[in-house]
Amino acid sequence: MAAHHDYDDIPGTVVFDAKRCREGYHLNMFCMSLMKAENRAAFKADEGAYLDRFPMTAEQRAAVLGRDWNRILDLGGNIFFIIKLAFCDGMSVQKVAALMTGSTPEAYAAMMQRGGRSIEGNRSRKDWSDG
Amino acid sequence: MARVIGGITSSHVPAMGVALDTGRTDDPYWAPIFAGYEPTRRWLGREAPDVAVIVYNDHACAFSLDVIPTFAIGCADEFPPADEGWGPRPVPVVQGNPDLAWHIAESAILDEFDLTIVNRMPVDHGLTVPLSLVYGQPAAWPCRVIPLAVNVLQYPPPTGHRCFALGRAIGRAIASFEEDLRVVVFGTGGMSHQIHGQRAGLINSAFDRRFLDGMVADPVTLARMPHVEYMREAGAESVELIMWLLMRGMLPDKVEELHRFYHVAASNTAVGHLLLRAAS
After folding, report:
1. Using one digit for the tens of pLDDT, what is the confidence trace for B156-209?
2. What domains appear along chain A, each with residue ranges and CATH number?
3. What is the pLDDT of residues B54-91, one digit of tens each?
4. Does domain B3-278 have CATH number 3.40.30.10?
5. Quick one: closest CA in A to B82, which residue?
6. For chain B, does the N or the C end have fewer beta carbons within 10 angstroms?
7. With an 8 Å Cβ cutoff, is A60 touching chain B?
8. What is the residue extent of each domain of chain B?
9. Does any CB of chain B come closer than 8 Å to the CB of residue A124?
10. How far apart are CA B31 and CA B36, in angstroms?
């Protein structure tokens, strides 16, 4: 049974804790491998074959191939590792963040220019369920 | 004897480094941010510190999930800019100060702060972007640098209280170093930001302004803030602000605020910058 943490109540947030580190080790180390140019080339040439080098779960593998960013987070991906996959795709941090929120990169960038997402209504899961 | 003359807090948003490296500092988006660092650039030009101790976090470049040091001090002669996946930043190699770094390691460990000693590591944007913001684009960095990496990627990071206490221990170590060096200390990262999940883009300027005030006047109270309060109130990644507290611990209790800059947003992040002088 998963232990309760004081941060579990924060909405739309995935804290990279012990459970996620254990679950996502190979997924994150795959992302880390993309810092090397030869690995990026091999991955781009045949994503499936490259992923065979990392003993990920079928769900993790599907999420990577489908670039299902929130699913990658849910399956143990750490954002600072996931970004390396995004960079490999030619995407910025802001674009990945935008996609994770379900927004478009343009609308998200405009929100940031207006001062970002307000804390009001975004403190707890209760705020979101009431909305 | 060595002496801490001042402290600097700064964001380390990677896009700031890209803007600097690609000559876009005059873009309307970036110009106000770089202008916000101008007083600090002038102050550093006048004060010409010998060494900078830079508290930062590695972003899965030098360290992976294989080894996750909570506190790691760079004791090497030099630290190359990391290749973060699109080639290293075109910035000078960071020159270390192994004499002082080893003295700090020895002193802090015997003071019961168990630092990890690192003799080889690349440094990523977490360390080089703040250097670029305050020194521009010189052919060589004008001071020696001691990198102090703090884990903030894997929960739990060290507490703010522990960071502040370590800062005080390092402050004592610096003060007991025989060479006559003038040291400036950096706390990097922050302020409000969350770059993942459905709540990405969170900014809490009221939290940030309180934090800036606390950094100057009452870091002891600030250091008691639990991780969950950072994560909830100012975005999950704002927990990086514990690195500011480590820096603050290296300064004397009383500081003079010489400059403050706050701006929303650079990419996903609220930029906070303080220049604090050690009161003598």
Report:
1. 999 999 999 999 999 999 999 999 999 999 999 999 999 999 999 999 999 999
2. 18-90 (1.10.700.10), 101-131 (no CATH)
3. 999 999 999 999 999 999 999 999 999 999 988 899 99
4. no
5. A35
6. C
7. no
8. 3-278
9. yes
10. 9
